[in-house]
Design a protein that fits this description.
This protein is mainly alpha-helical and about 80 residues long. Helix content is about 75%, strand content about 0%. The protein has one domain. The chain contains three helices and no strands. Helix 1 packs antiparallel against helix 2 and helix 2 packs antiparallel against helix 3.
Length: about 80
Amino acid sequence: MAVFIHPAHRKLAAITLMNTDSNGVIRMSLLDLSMILPLLRLNLELVRESDELKNLALEAQTTGDMEWVQEITMKLDEMEAKYL
């Protein structure tokens, strides 16, 4: 399984890189922070959705419901495919 990078993660990385000095210290203005906050919220939603599906898949596997596991895996694959 490939690791997918959501556009929000790329934007966070770009903003951080632009605000990192030659010593590796991150210095951000209030404007930069205001750009990051919505991206952090989106990141939270993505992580939460992914973790919920993975926990459901584990529960389905524990109960032996392989149809449910496949259904959840398809949802995870669809989620990942959006960002590849």
